[in-house]
Amino acid sequence: AAEKNAFILFNSGAYPGGQNKAAKAAAIEGTNAIFAAIRSKDAAGLKSAYGSYISANGINPLPAVDASTGQGYCSDYDYRVRSSAGAIYVSCKQGVQELMRLLVSIERHQVRAASVHNNMSFSHR
What we know:
By secondary structure, this protein is mostly helical. The chain has helices at residues 4-14, 21-39, 43-56, 92-119.
């Protein structure tokens, strides 16, 4: 399976060096158990092996962030965008101020366009 590379990369990167040898060996055993269950088409065994691997290696999902209490991402290129961890706090006051700036800008452009239009001379031949 293509996902095997993800497990190999995680096992090698999460447990570098000699001091993590036992933890790395345990993670590799967990990976082997997962793929043994896949090969034997044992759904219950796969679910159990995967659950054990996740808990033994301390892998947690992204935390949910509430937009009213915190910020979860800062740009569209952040990996948390469009996830439960992706929230941006925008106060009502900030939103109203931004809307007012936009409306003033639009009004200025309309005034300039009308001024240019009124000052243009059209000649008919």
